[in-house]
Design brief:
The chain is an alpha+beta fold. It has 4 domains: 101 residues, no CATH class; 222 residues, Transposase Inhibitor Protein From Tn5, Chain A, domain 1, CATH 3.90.350; 53 residues, no CATH class; 31 residues, no CATH class. The chain is 41% helix and 12% strand. A hairpin with a 5-residue loop joins strand 2 and strand 3. Helix 2 crosses helix 4. It starts with 15 loop residues before the first helix and ends with a helix.
Length: 469
């Protein structure tokens, strides 16, 4: 009380509140490891020839995943969680230096992360029920989004600034194209590149994971002759919105092969057919508050009896679910701004984000199937919040039977937290809270000079280029 600068080691015992906080951190990490083991087998993280380290691939993966699920978590806090986890399980903890953990993150190979992602996606495939399919077929939704990252030399080399940003005043920006399952909502594959890359070349990187008989659902950014012809050659159908640069009045048309191949490999372009047959579906949007009034769909589903216009319209309206999936990833999990400072770690952080997202979607799917609730009524944000509070209970399970019981209680709690059914709800893209009236950064921070009067704020670079001002 009178000597607050003294260490707690000299006081005889740690305060109860501090002890409770430490044990809670250990329980969170151990409970998270139990959650990962439920969906991803432990042997997935076995690395041949790996030394006997404190930060093994499994420990590093779990600690890194904890940082992803807790966006404010630093490397130092991740080390503290590993220390308390080891102490709680009777093992020798690592030291306080976070250098070993950072080196372990650099050693964590993308191959291990991809193996974990593949095992998790296989879990979804095995639990997809026939009622989840559309017309008995698997539908995959594709869309793109932008992501920024710290302004470092390594990131700038691979991911340039967005347009109109001055050197030292912007952030490297990338574009991510994701391939989602419409039935389960999990992210199967993704491709990531600089923001200048078009959507279609990124989707071409994912064609190998699109199987015969599936349907691709996308917006008009993916309405390209080459892409549709490439997928048709694999016996994959598409339902996309007609690109705004094209105008068609018929309901059936033979789409002739363009003369320009625009970024396609010459040999691959030569293998594509000379024309493809497509079907066009038009409909009016009568819902008040919607921005679009008329939509024209392009599809290779030519049988109007098996696939009537109304069924295709209802299918395309479900495409909006992919926007909600990206909102869950970027807002609920914080993927809109990455935190790693090198290109290699950016790829690993993206992989961890996708795995974290799919773990949450796996809990939602299991809860929906077990308690007979529609998957779209379960809240992603509510699942993340419940999971954060429930992981200490998973750690305190005395045996495997109690652990299964705790998981059953967790699934029941998720199924009871349903989102109200509000179809055609109007949510304008507008911000209510006003931003701070600070001046924008127009020069590198070490060169920026801010005047006391906001009306006369000038940067040092402007003063140097205009010495008489």
């Amino acid at each position: 009380m009178y000597l607050p600068g003294f260490s707690y080691l000299l006081k005889g015992r740690r305060p109860k509140s501090e002890m409770a906080r430490v044990m809670e951190q250990a329980a969170k990490l151990d409970g998270l490891a139990a959650l990962v083991a439920r969906f991803i087998p432990t042997e997935t993280f076995a690395v041949a020839g790996e030394r006997d380290r404190v930060f093994t691939a499994r420990v590093t993966f779990t600690a890194f995943l904890g940082q992803v699920l807790h966006r404010g978590s630093t490397c130092r806090e991740a080390v503290r969680r590993v220390q308390t986890w080891f102490l709680a399980t009777g093992r020798t903890p690592p030291d306080d230096n976070s250098s070993a953990y950072c080196q372990a993150r650099n050693r964590l190979g993308l191959r291990v992360l991809r193996q974990a992602h593949d095992r998790l996606c296989r879990w979804f495939v095995d639990r997809t029920q026939p009622g989840d399919l559309w017309q008995g077929r698997t539908v995959k939704v594709v869309d793109c989004t932008g992501i920024s990252m710290p302004d470092t030399a390594s990131n700038r080399q691979c991911f340039p600034y967005a347009g109109g940003q001055r050197p030292g005043c912007g952030f490297p920006t990338g574009k991510l194209v994701g391939l989602f399952s419409l039935a389960t909502g999990h992210l199967q594959r993704f491709a990531f590149a600089g923001w200048k890359t078009h959507d279609i070349p990124l989707l071409r990187q994912l064609v190998g994971w699109i199987e015969e008989g599936e349907i691709i659902l996308g917006d008009r950014g993916f309405c390209g002759w080459g892409l549709i012809a490439l997928l048709a050659g694999k016996h994959v159908d598409v339902v996309v919105r007609l690109n705004q640069a094209r105008h068609a009045r018929k309901t059936r048309m033979h789409w002739v092969k363009p003369q320009r191949r625009a970024g396609w490999d010459r040999a691959l372009w030569a293998e594509l057919p000379e024309q493809i047959q497509v079907r066009l579906v038009r409909y009016r949007v009568e819902t008040p508050g919607f921005r679009t009034r008329e939509v024209v769909l392009v599809t290779t589903l030519l049988d109007a009896v098996q696939y009537p216009d109304q069924a295709l319209i209802e299918l395309y309206e479900r495409r909006w679910q992919v926007e909600l999936n990206f909102r869950d990833i970027k807002t609920s999990l914080g993927l809109d701004v990455l935190r790693t400072k090198s290109e290699a770690l950016v790829q690993k952080e993206l992989s961890l984000q996708v795995i974290a997202y799919n773990l949450v979607r796996g809990l939602m799917l299991e809860s929906a199937h077990q308690h007979h609730q529609p998957l779209y009524r379960l809240s992603f944000k509510g699942t993340v919040d419940t999971l954060r509070q429930w992981t200490p209970l998973l750690d305190r399970a005395a045996d495997a039977k109690m652990l299964r019981s705790r998981f059953e209680d967790l699934l029941l709690a998720l199924a009871a937290d349903l989102v109200p059914y509000r179809p055609h709800r109007v949510e304008p893209r507008a911000v209510k809270r006003r931003p701070k009236t600070y001046q924008r950064l127009t020069a590198p921070r070490h060169q920026m000079v801010v005047s006391p009067s906001r009306r006369h704020n000038r940067s040092l670079s402007f003063q140097r280029s205009h010495p008489l001002s």
